[in-house]
Amino acid sequence: MTTMTAPTRSSPGRPSGTSIAVFCGARPGTPEAVAAAREIGELIGTGGHRLVYGGGGCGLMGELAWSAWENGAEILGVTPRFLHERERHVAAPPQTVRITDTMAERKRVMLDESAAFIALAGGYGTLDEVLDVIGLTYLAVHHKPLVLLQADGEWDGLVEVLESLVGSGYADPLPTGLFTVAGTPEHAMKYALEPCPAVTP
Ligand SMILES: CC(C)=CCNc1ncnc2c1ncn2[C@@H]1O[C@H](COP(=O)(O)O)[C@@H](O)[C@H]1O
Description:
One of its GO terms (biological process) is cytokinin biosynthetic process. The chain is α/β, with parallel strands linked by helices and 201 residues long.
């Protein structure tokens, strides 16, 4: 694993905040999703928190990261070597970059470096990250809050799939509090900063 450190931001008087991992798409989303990504970035920056994300400069990831940077956030970007160049053809803001050898290592670093997770709209990669966190919380490997932020109903489908697995007897109901669906960026940040109840599998 390689780490490249950006110049540290000087932020006198800023409270040392929480490290929040945000999962979202590497492609441009709807205007609603772009606005939500920018607002989460702003709330992370103005709240004195650190953004942990996938390290890219494109799509919703770029909108999020630039907004966080513009609002004073420290940023840790975690990216596997083979994606590093592909997702940096659009410039990302200054940040500490952790380059991993594998996708699995990327997810583990993001998990270890963060106290909470917020998922915005995205594609296969975002879905993979969300299911990974849900699984690890369910298995009590960690208990950190996960918030699914709905800008435009993006997570309805996943919730329906999970309910259908339970309804057809293939899965037990997920424990309350395993994840929270939020309708606004403000609510997403509020839930992310609340302690997560331990889940008993
Ligand atoms: C279920 C399935 C076909 C998964 C295969 N595809 C993927 N699996 C894991 N991470 C990915 C995948 N595709 C992209 N990513 C990475 O996950 C992050 C978000 O991607 P996405 O736009 O949500 O996509 C990006 O860094 C992206 O490069």
